């Protein structure tokens, strides 16, 4: 296989860690960003125990200047970014009539505006080299909406609008752009949902359980592979049958 340089934003999170691990085990050079140095050091030490070395750069995906600096630093360490996974995301769940402007903008900035902030500094290089793979990690709730997530669902739905526009603009440059929409996966983010609410959600999943982070990582590896050159602009739902669009 061809070894590539991959940037996975939010790589220290639940799904992010699984994606980093999967791409690294495939032989790619993998990088992620972090905000809190102490947390980053602990995470790096843990993943190093598995024999995986990850380049880590400080950067806040909600801040355009920080992302530009982060990408340039990463390029000087590992080389140009060839695979980008826009994975970093947060929740600020509350019903809309109680939602503050801060809760709205925090989620839109980190989940959606980050796609601009991180992709903009890498796109020219991908176009110049005529090869690239970009994957947005969206959510089932961007597809179906969710009680208590007007901010999150709006941002996650926006990510796929971004995907299908970029896919059209960059197809002739050998760049594919796709979305993966995970359902409820066993991560800290989902475990933070109150237990009684979570139990009702799990009861709606035909497969009968939460997803595993590796089940999302597997799809990202597939979409970022050399052989996936003809798959672009798609939104791959991975949700145990919880929501079946067509
Ligand atoms: N449909 C209809 N009614 C619902 C409902 C639903 N899905 N969920 C809650 N309600 C109702 C309750 O039954 C209750 O009704 P009564 O007042 O008549 O008893 C009412 O809404 C409660 O409303 P409140 O505004 O008082 O809500 P709250 O402050 O107690 O909390 C909430 C609401 C924050 C939305 C909470 O229910 C919650 O956390 N829900 C889970 C949201 C969720 O799924 N988040 C996903 C996080 S993980 C993630 O985002 C990853 C991913 O991509 C999948």
UniProtKB/TrEMBL annotation:
It comes from the Bacteria. Residues 4-183 form the Ketoreductase domain. Coiled coil: none annotated. One of its GO terms (molecular function) is acetoacetyl-CoA reductase activity. GO terms for cellular component: cytoplasm. PROSITE patterns: ADH_SHORT. Pfam families: adh_short (PF00106). This is 3-oxoacyl-[acyl-carrier-protein] reductase. It comes from Dyella marensis.
């Amino acid at each position: 296989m061809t070894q590539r340089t991959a940037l996975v934003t939010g790589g220290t999170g639940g799904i992010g860690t699984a994606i980093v691990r999967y791409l690294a085990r495939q032989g790619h050079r993998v990088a992620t960003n972090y905000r809190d140095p102490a947390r980053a050091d602990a995470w790096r030490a843990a993943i190093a125990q598995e024999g995986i070395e990850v380049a880590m750069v400080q950067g806040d995906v909600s801040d355009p200047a920080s992302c530009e600096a982060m990408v340039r630093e990463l390029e000087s360490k590992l080389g140009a970014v060839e695979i980008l996974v826009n994975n970093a995301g947060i929740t600020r769940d509350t019903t809309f009539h109680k939602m503050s402007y801060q809760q709205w903008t925090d989620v839109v900035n980190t989940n959606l505006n980050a796609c601009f902030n991180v992709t903009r500094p890498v796109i020219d290089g991908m176009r110049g080299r005529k090869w690239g793979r970009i994957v947005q990690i969206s959510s089932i709730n961007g597809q179906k909406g969710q009680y208590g997530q007007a901010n999150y669902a709006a941002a996650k739905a926006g990510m796929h609008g971004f995907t299908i526009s970029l896919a059209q603009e960059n197809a002739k440059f050998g760049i594919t752009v796709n979305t993966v929409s995970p359902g409820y996966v066993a991560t800290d983010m989902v475990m933070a949902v109150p237990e009684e609410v979570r139990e009702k959600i799990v009861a709606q999943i035909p497969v009968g359980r939460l997803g595993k982070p590796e089940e999302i990582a597997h799809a990202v590896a597939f979409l970022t592979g050399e052989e996936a050159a003809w798959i672009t602009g798609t939104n791959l739902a991975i949700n145990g049958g919880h929501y079946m669009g067509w």
